[in-house]
């Protein structure tokens, strides 16, 4: 008979959540693969653990996305401007191999480029990613052969990023690994994964969220700083984290996260800043100077106005709108009846940045997918949003086909494209509205209905509030108001002696 020291009977680890038991759409969908999952598979008692299954599904869907780009790989990138749009297989990657000097061995940020773009217009870590891919690209054969190889090398590296994202999401909510299937199976994720290099920043951000969920504040900051060195949007996560730590009084952890972010960003950027300022600042100049572009409501306004707003005016108005959204999210955080979950606010802040921005490129959906899954893991709502994004994915390429096909006008005219923009903006706002509702009505939150508080919150999970505004400031003051069994989770699972 085992002793109490080796078998702590007082510890009860909650069972993993079964999506097929709590989500009607997941249950119906599971019939396609043999019905709801059993307890043995759920607990991962065989080699086929949830994390491994999710990773393999993500790789499989990524591969299908590569197949979808086959018409372009076989010639549409090189021999016809409109055919890459009619086949909906456009990618920046092969075009920028030559267009940004990689084919000629130019060093990003240090060597000037021929043409209007003087230097590479991407953040430093993304530039490093692009440069490493160029080193791995064979320099023999025609330029078309080299561009094909460059795209394939980048696709292989981005596939690793996609697998990392899926695994990190599966492990962030310890009791909900199967939610990551939403990431792995997201159609917009597979379709847009190789348009650009966004998956690098998304993978680093997903890893940062995982580290925060484990209570590793400094590691979170380092990874977030690296993500910000690859793309600007991850830095916005510090805003909601600041307000959450304010409400919970977790200043030390926020300080570690902030310090790690700043130091990691500086380690990557400072050498280029000191040695090649003009090249380093190209990304920020380009972001400020570019006009309204694809996917934004600003474009609809500009194309339907006889006197469109200037770029400077749009920059000012977009900044003001973003600041208003930030203020609204901060007020929501401090007045909500129960402290919002970190993932909920992370999704809202990134969505606000994208929706108010002067460009909403189709690949920006990649920024939102992991955060949306952590914020609201519900199949119906997620698929509604994905359907809107797929409609926009097709709409933008059909619009570009229309504008590049000359008198043939094959594709979608401007009015139709405006409807496509409206659909994907409304899809994003729809998901935002549901997340806000879940914050104001915590009993509707699918994560908390399953018995958790904030599984991605790390030190915020089940923490006590110390600063609240409005009705939430009155008893009960405990932020969790936890209705299920109280379990103190450590970095490796429930602590001994917890109930």
TrEMBL record:
Name the Gene Ontology molecular function terms of this record: hexosyltransferase activity
Q: Where is the composition biased (Polar residues)?
A: 1-10
**Which residue ranges traverse the bilayer?**
47-67, 149-170, 182-212, 218-245, 257-277, 314-336, 342-361, 382-402, 417-440
Does the record carry rRNA-binding as a key word? Answer: no
A Gene Ontology term for the protein's cellular component: plasma membrane
User: Where is the major localization of this protein?
Assistant: membrane
Give the family per the record.
Belongs to the glycosyltransferase 87 family.
Protein name (record)? DUF2029 domain-containing protein
């Amino acid at each position: 008979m085992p002793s109490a020291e080796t078998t702590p009977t007082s510890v009860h680890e909650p069972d993993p959540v079964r999506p097929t038991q709590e989500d009607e759409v997941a249950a119906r969908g599971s019939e396609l693969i043999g019905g709801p999952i059993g307890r043995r598979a759920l607990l991962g008692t065989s080699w086929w653990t949830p994390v491994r299954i999710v990773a393999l599904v993500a790789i499989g869907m990524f591969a299908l996305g590569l197949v979808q780009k086959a018409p372009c790989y076989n010639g549409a990138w090189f021999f016809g401007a409109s055919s890459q749009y009619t086949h909906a297989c456009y990618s920046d990657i092969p075009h920028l191999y030559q267009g940004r000097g990689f084919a000629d061995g130019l060093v990003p940020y240090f060597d000037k480029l021929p043409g209007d773009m003087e230097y590479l217009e991407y953040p430093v870590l993304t530039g490093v990613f692009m440069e490493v891919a160029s080193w791995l690209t064979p320099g023999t054969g025609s330029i078309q052969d080299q561009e094909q190889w460059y795209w394939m090398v980048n696709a292989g590296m981005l596939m690793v990023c996609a697998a990392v994202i899926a695994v990190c999401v599966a492990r962030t909510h310890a009791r909900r690994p199967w939610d990551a299937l939403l990431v792995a199976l997201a159609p917009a994720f597979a379709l847009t994964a190789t348009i650009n290099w966004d998956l690098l920043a998304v993978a680093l951000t997903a890893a940062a969220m995982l580290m925060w969920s484990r209570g590793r504040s400094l590691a979170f900051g380092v990874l977030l700083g690296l993500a910000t060195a690859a793309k600007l949007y991850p830095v916005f996560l510090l805003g909601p984290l600041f307000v959450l730590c304010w409400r919970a009084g977790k200043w030390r952890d926020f300080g570690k996260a902030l310090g790690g972010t700043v130091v990691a960003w500086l380690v990557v950027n400072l050498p280029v800043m000191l040695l090649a300022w003009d090249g380093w600042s190209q990304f920020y100049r380009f972001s400020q100077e570019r006009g309204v572009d694809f996917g934004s409501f600003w474009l609809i306004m500009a194309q339907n106005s006889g006197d469109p707003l200037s770029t400077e005016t749009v920059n000012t108005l977009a900044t003001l709108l973003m600041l208003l959204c930030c203020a609204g999210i901060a007020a929501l955080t401090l007045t909500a009846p129960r402290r919002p979950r970190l993932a909920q606010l992370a999704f809202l802040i990134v969505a606000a940045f994208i929706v108010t921005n002067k460009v909403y490129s189709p690949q920006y959906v990649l920024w939102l997918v992991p955060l949306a899954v952590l914020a609201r893991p519900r199949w119906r709502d997620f698929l509604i949003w994905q359907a809107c994004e797929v409609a926009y994915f097709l709409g933008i390429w059909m619009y570009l086909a229309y504008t590049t096909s000359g008198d043939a006008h094959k594709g979608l005219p401007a009015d139709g494209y405006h409807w496509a923009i409206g659909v994907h903006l409304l899809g994003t706002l729809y998901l935002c509205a549901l997340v806000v509702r879940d914050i104001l009505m915590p009993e509707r939150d699918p994560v908390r209905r399953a018995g958790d508080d904030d599984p991605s919150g790390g030190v915020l999970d089940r923490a006590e509030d110390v600063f609240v505004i409005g009705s939430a400031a009155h008893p009960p003051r405990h932020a969790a108001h936890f209705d299920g069994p109280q379990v103190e989770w450590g970095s490796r699972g429930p602590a001994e002696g917890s109930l």
